Amino acid sequence: MTSHPSPTGMPALDDLLAGLHVVSIPMRVRFRGVEVREAALLHGPSGWGEFSPFLEYQPPEASRWLSAAIEAAYGAWPAPRRTHVPVNATVPAVAPDRVPGVLARFDGATTAKVKVAERGQSVQDDVDRVAAVRDALGPAGRIRVDANGGWSVQQATEALRRLSAYGLEYAEQPCASVEELRDLRVALARSGIDVLVAADESIRKAEDPIRVARLEAADLVVVKVAPLGGVHRALAVVEACRLPAVVSSALDTSVGMSAGVALAAALPDLDHACGLGTVALLEGDVVDPPLEPRGGVLPVGRVQADESLLERWAAPADRVRWWRERVSSCHALLDDATVIP
Ligand SMILES: O=C(O)CCC(=O)C1=CC=C[C@@H](O)[C@@H]1C(=O)O
Ligand SMILES: [Mg+2]
């Protein structure tokens, strides 16, 4: 029997598990070490929600992703201010000759985010990849790079000196810590290197996501719905940081992506293309048609998971068990106050 959500909105674990589907979808291109993307999809009275923290995340961090999934399936998103949102192409740390093929998957995107500082690669690899992206986009295209905290302040200064020759919109999380980001901003200014700094991990993995703004450690903030615990919470972070925001995703299926689109649609200002095009990096999806950019934009609105696609990509029984246990340990960490504002 299915019980109703409590008056404050926290669904019972049995309800979550009753509406749970686990999928396992290969990546077209390896991205952040992921070759197969696993996700748990929840179905509730408001629609579909996605719970897909990366496999190595422990329950305290992963439980925020569950809050976001519960908000989507049981709560309401804030009112949209626009009907479509602009999307960037996302270029994994591939060889330059693969760049045109990757970009071709992001129809109409005029901004590209390029992964750099990949372990085992050199700055020259980054320069060659960014040069290939500039070639493909032409002079009017925008290019941002994402180092995922892979550089020291000195390495970042040197790498960004070289990469800035190709014209950069900003560098995302060039160094790991908030203090390094702050020091890097000073170093770049002193060296006359004109590159803005954006914080990603320093927001989404931080105990205190506002600290980066207090320390003046970034020019922009990257916000992602799932790691921040939902659309409402991500909006609150943007408001508190008082910095321009870029909405991005977490390698989600179209279900998780639609929550990112809801955030981008609700932001008072949206001056940057959103990193919400990565369904294109997956071999398949759970929504038909998938939420992939057309003409460089995505439509705002709810999506429905398709039963036959859920079956097509259904994860093996041992992985389903693993995800059900994960939902259960994360649910145990949440209380009414942590979900559904
Ligand atoms: O922002 C984008 O263009 C796409 C999303 C993206 O880059 C990421 C998604 C998931 C995990 C992260 O390592 C990565 C990021 O660091 O921003
Ligand atoms: Mg990033």
UniProtKB/TrEMBL annotation:
<dbReference type="InterPro" id="IPR029065">
    <property type="entry name" value="Enolase_C-like"/>
</dbReference>
<feature type="binding site">
    <location>
        <position position="200"/>
    </location>
    <ligand>
        <name>Mg(2+)</name>
    </ligand>
</feature>
<dbReference type="InterPro" id="IPR010196">
    <property type="entry name" value="OSB_synthase_MenC1"/>
</dbReference>
<protein>
    <recommendedName>
        <fullName>o-succinylbenzoate synthase</fullName>
        <ecNumber>4.2.1.113</ecNumber>
    </recommendedName>
</protein>
<comment type="pathway">
    <text>Quinol/quinone metabolism; 1,4-dihydroxy-2-naphthoate biosynthesis; 1,4-dihydroxy-2-naphthoate from chorismate: step 4/7.</text>
</comment>
<comment type="pathway">
    <text>Quinol/quinone metabolism; menaquinone biosynthesis.</text>
</comment>
<dbReference type="InterPro" id="IPR036849">
    <property type="entry name" value="Enolase-like_C_sf"/>
</dbReference>
<feature type="binding site">
    <location>
        <position position="146"/>
    </location>
    <ligand>
        <name>Mg(2+)</name>
    </ligand>
</feature>
<dbReference type="InterPro" id="IPR013342">
    <property type="entry name" value="Mandelate_racemase_C"/>
</dbReference>
<keyword id="KW-0474">Menaquinone biosynthesis</keyword>
<keyword id="KW-0456">Lyase</keyword>
<dbReference type="Pfam" id="PF13378">
    <property type="entry name" value="MR_MLE_C"/>
</dbReference>
<keyword id="KW-0479">Metal-binding</keyword>
<feature type="active site" description="Proton donor">
    <location>
        <position position="115"/>
    </location>
</feature>
<dbReference type="Pfam" id="PF18374">
    <property type="entry name" value="Enolase_like_N"/>
</dbReference>
<feature type="binding site">
    <location>
        <position position="172"/>
    </location>
    <ligand>
        <name>Mg(2+)</name>
    </ligand>
</feature>
<feature type="domain" description="Mandelate racemase/muconate lactonizing enzyme C-terminal">
    <location>
        <begin position="96"/>
        <end position="191"/>
    </location>
</feature>
<comment type="similarity">
    <text>Belongs to the mandelate racemase/muconate lactonizing enzyme family. MenC type 1 subfamily.</text>
</comment>
<feature type="active site" description="Proton acceptor">
    <location>
        <position position="224"/>
    </location>
</feature>
<keyword id="KW-0460">Magnesium</keyword>
<comment type="function">
    <text>Converts 2-succinyl-6-hydroxy-2,4-cyclohexadiene-1-carboxylate (SHCHC) to 2-succinylbenzoate (OSB).</text>
</comment>
